[in-house]
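Lab meeting, item 3. Inverse folding demo.
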């Protein structure tokens, strides 16, 4: 970058900025030196001339310039709220003659729209606002006019003047459908634009019988197997390039649990020492700790000290590439847990449509998580992880009721060390012409989850109590040393903050769970967090009231102020039904929730949250219990979303939380006995059923009234549906959501009300619902009756049901044949049988509902 001439009378653009430049991919030494001279020419101060990113004086910096986030001090810089920006932020600032927003040039890989500048052509106003909000929130930029900075034009057709002009002038800009942004935001990953490019986007073609192929993926190199069987070749280790720089001035400790032979250990030791490094046997002196499992005092001590902890695959990667990378950047560069991830034991997972390194990586990740990876898909499989849904395995999985998800579910479960819900739409989204193998391996280890589940400050204090030596120092001078028993009240950085709960007894390598008790200090009292309060895992028991602390808070508030509107708009638009491309709302739409509107927050997940995260006090008055209310058939809210929002907020302030989840509802409000999805599903949980008059009266009097004063009484519909509401609720309490337990009920794909509706009703009552398409070879899952099961119950469980319409007769003979081959009695019934059984909370005879 050539230095630019500046006007001596003008104020220096970077006069208030203090920089550190970190070399790596995208910024070599020569480019860094040129960039430093440009910054100095415009008044900037270069704090350090060391370009390795280690031991940066963070307290002196305002900006860190690096093309990636992969350098040793990145986590500490993030904790200190110092922006890490890409080199072209400097060019953008000079072009604007003012400091550009650092967030739009952040090196954070989570900002998937970084380097994207969009210009919208012919979109509806609502869709335009939604896409712009999402792109800004995810690190991109928007330009109202076409300029040289624009990278993507968003359009529905090539008919607009902007698109015709770009095509005629052959400008280097991609014209994409808005569907691309929708799919990227749903996945949280940036996928290839090619299937969405106008004028002939692949996703709109009718003939798409060929499965999509994965684009090139460079995220998996050297990170496929956590326990590689082969070391780097001798030609790689003894290369002519000279000693490795990655181990210079480093002390490396090799753990005993690696299980490597003496010959290989000697080779690695010689290699490190020839590179100006040193191999140590003392974990307190080590800068790098190489181990296989997440267990043992050495692992906990080095982890608590903020030192690099990786496995053998990570060590080989450093040797092969001769450049530092964080062991948490790739999931299989970090040590594994001996007992696997809780909740994964017993799972049988198969893979489909992943190939090459991506398939090997996922197979090893499944094994590391503690599940079984099967080469073939069978009916006893629990999950199918697929890159797209165009395969025989996917079709069979749908017929057999096997969960179909993408690899993000596996990666994020492993990263966060918690089994993620498969109902999350991110894990079940498959863009039509995208092979998700192209985004495999982009998930990082969640360092906060590691700290919570695998090592705690108390562990280190106990080790220090045994050894009276001085506490070891962190490799980063900005991180505080580990506290000992004599310094437990000293404020700590986020790397060594105390957790809310601890349980000292645990098996090696097995995560521990909190007990809800918080320790103040050795001399303090035990206390339980007050009810209703939200306690952050990252908050210390004592906060230092120093000048530097106040400055850091002011700086953080200023930075958050710049981005909060973008994040709010994105989070709101992301939750809209249909995504961001199927119709939008205008800014002046009366039903649109403003970005500056604040909402209250409670401890319940059904309640909304304020922008600042502060809880809002409920109405003054006597203490009362909170109820969770499911509402069905309340006509006052139909087509009146503003009234609905206002009423729900008022009810929440009264202690009535309106929920959409029948399993969470303690009460159900309806104007009469209904046969809606909500009402029928809620019956399985035996809620207290009240009339919607309860809602009206509470809103009118602005007071929490006793729900028992508003029972739902509907004799007319009880007679019409031939049920007794009181008897049904009594049976529901006795059933405990097990009305259909042990039964597999099939349902055709095309049916009034939709397959998902009947599936949720069946599962709410403890049954299993499979879609039936008449595939040859399908078998009914076998279930052995318990030895104490009565003869009548055995006969009932021998029946297998198919929910069908009269127009699906072509499938009936196949279903009967399948049931008889499985030694079951086939029952083909209308949906009315299922609805009436769920309403009555007893399995009714098929009677007039059976189809012949």
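The presenter then showed the designed sequence:
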């Amino acid at each position: 970058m050539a230095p630019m001439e500046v006007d001596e009378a003008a104020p220096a653009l970077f006069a208030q900025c203090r920089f550190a430049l970190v070399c790596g991919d995208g910024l070599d030494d020569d480019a860094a030196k040129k960039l430093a001279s440009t910054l100095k020419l415009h008044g900037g101060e270069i704090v350090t001339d060391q370009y390795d990113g280690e031991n940066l004086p963070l307290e002196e910096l305002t900006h860190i310039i690096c093309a990636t986030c992969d350098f040793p001090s990145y986590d500490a810089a993030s904790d200190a709220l110092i922006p890490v920006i890409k080199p072209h932020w400097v060019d953008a600032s000079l072009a604007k003659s003012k400091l550009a927003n650092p967030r739009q040039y952040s090196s954070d890989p989570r900002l998937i729209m970084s380097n994207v500048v969009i210009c919208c052509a012919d979109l509806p106003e609502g869709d335009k606002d939604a896409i712009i909000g999402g792109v800004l929130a995810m690190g991109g930029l928007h330009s109202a006019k076409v300029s040289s900075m624009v990278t993507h034009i968003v359009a529905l057709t090539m008919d607009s003047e902007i698109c015709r002009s770009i095509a005629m002038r052959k400008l280097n800009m991609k014209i994409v459908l808005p569907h691309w942004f929708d799919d990227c935001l749903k996945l949280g990953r940036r996928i290839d634009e090619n299937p969405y490019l106008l004028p002939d986007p692949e996703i709109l073609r009718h003939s798409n019988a060929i499965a999509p192929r994965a684009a090139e993926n460079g995220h998996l190199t050297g990170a496929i197997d956590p326990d590689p069987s082969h070391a780097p070749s001798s030609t790689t280790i003894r290369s002519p390039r000279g000693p490795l720089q990655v181990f210079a001035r480093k002390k490396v400790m090799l753990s005993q649990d690696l299980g490597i032979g003496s010959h290989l250990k000697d080779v690695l030791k010689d290699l490190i020492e020839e590179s100006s490094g040193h191999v140590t046997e003392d974990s307190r002196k080590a800068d790098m700790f190489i181990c296989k499992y997440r267990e043992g005092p050495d692992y906990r001590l080095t982890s608590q000290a903020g030192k690099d902890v990786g496995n053998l695959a990570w060590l080989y990667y450093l040797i092969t590439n001769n450049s530092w990378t964080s062991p948490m950047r790739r999931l299989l560069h970090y040590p594994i847990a001996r007992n696997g991830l809780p909740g994964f034991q017993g799972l049988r997972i198969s893979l489909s449509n992943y190939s090459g390194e991506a398939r090997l990586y996922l197979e090893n990740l499944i094994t590391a998580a503690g599940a079984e990876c099967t080469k073939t898909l069978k009916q006893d499989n629990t999950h199918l992880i697929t890159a797209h849904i165009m395969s025989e395995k996917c079709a069979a999985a749908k017929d057999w009721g096997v969960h179909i998800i993408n690899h993000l579910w596996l990666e994020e479960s492993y990263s966060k060390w918690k089994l993620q819900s498969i109902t999350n739409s991110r894990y079940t989204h498959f863009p039509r012409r995208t092979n998700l193998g192209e985004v495999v391996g982009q998930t990082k280890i969640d360092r906060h989850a590691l700290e919570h589940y695998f090592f705690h400050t108390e562990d280190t204090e106990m080790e220090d109590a045994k050894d009276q030596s001085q506490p070891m120092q962190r490799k980063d001078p900005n991180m505080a040393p580990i506290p000992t028993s004599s310094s437990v009240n000293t404020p700590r950085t986020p790397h060594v903050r105390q957790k809310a709960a601890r349980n000292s007894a645990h098996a090696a390598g097995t995560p521990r769970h909190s007990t809800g008790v918080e320790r103040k200090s050795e001399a303090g009292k035990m206390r339980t967090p007050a009810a209703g309060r939200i306690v952050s895992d990252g908050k210390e028991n004592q906060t230092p009231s120093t000048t530097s602390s106040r400055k850091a808070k002011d700086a953080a508030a200023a930075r958050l102020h710049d981005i909060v509107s973008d994040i709010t708009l994105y989070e709101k638009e992301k939750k809209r039904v249909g995504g961001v491309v199927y119709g939008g709302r205008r800014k002046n739409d009366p039903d649109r929730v403003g970005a500056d509107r604040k909402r209250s927050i409670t401890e319940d997940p059904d309640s909304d949250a304020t922008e600042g995260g502060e809880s809002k006090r409920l109405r003054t008055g006597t203490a009362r219990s909170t109820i969770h209310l499911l509402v069905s058939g309340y006509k006052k809210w139909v087509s009146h979303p503003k009234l609905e929002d206002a009423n729900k907020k008022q009810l929440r302030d009264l202690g009535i939380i309106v929920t959409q989840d029948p399993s969470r509802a303690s009460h159900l409000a309806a104007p009469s006995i209904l046969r809606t999805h909500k009402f029928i599903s809620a019956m399985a949980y035996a809620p207290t059923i009240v009339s919607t008059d309860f809602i009206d009266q509470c809103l009118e009097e602005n007071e929490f009234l006793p729900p028992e004063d508003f029972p739902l009484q509907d004799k007319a519909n009880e007679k019409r549906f031939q049920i007794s509401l009181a008897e049904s609720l009594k049976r529901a309490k006795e059933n405990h959501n097990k009305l259909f337990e042990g039964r597999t009920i099939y349902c055709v794909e095309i049916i009034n009300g939709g397959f998902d509706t009947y599936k949720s009703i069946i599962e709410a009552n403890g049954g299993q619902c499979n879609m039936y398409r008449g595939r040859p070879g399908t078998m009914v899952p076998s279930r052995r009756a318990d030895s104490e099961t009565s003869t009548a119950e055995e006969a009932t469980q021998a029946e297998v049901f198919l929910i069908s319409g009269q127009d699906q007769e072509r499938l009936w003979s196949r279903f009967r044949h399948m049931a008889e081959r499985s030694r079951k009695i086939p029952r083909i019934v209308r949906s009315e049988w299922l609805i009436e059984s769920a309403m009555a909370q007893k399995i009714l005879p098929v009677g007039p509902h059976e189809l012949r």
